[in-house]
Amino acid sequence: MPRVLIIDDDRDLTAMLAEYLSPEGFVVETAHSGEDGLAAALAADYSLIILDVMLPRINGLEVLRRFRARSACPVIMLTARGQ
Q1: Which residue of 28, 38, 40, 43 lies most exposed, with the fewest beta carbons within 10 A?
Q2: Against a cut of 0.90, is the pTM above it?
Q3: What DSSP string runs through 72-83?
């Protein structure tokens, strides 16, 4: 089964995304900070990572930069920023 990691500090949003993806056959894991998300992303093999830009401690762009140095796993960036 394909594994998806959702890195977002909005717990309601991660729960909703997991609710939509799980019935479609995805195994969904979540992390709620940049540090926790980066550690999870580097510790396991995922088919896809959904990554928020605005995260506590380490922002999503920095998480992506560090992650890209070690993996080519597809990443979808989420943001509520207006610019």
Answers
A1: 43
A2: yes
A3: ---EEEE-----
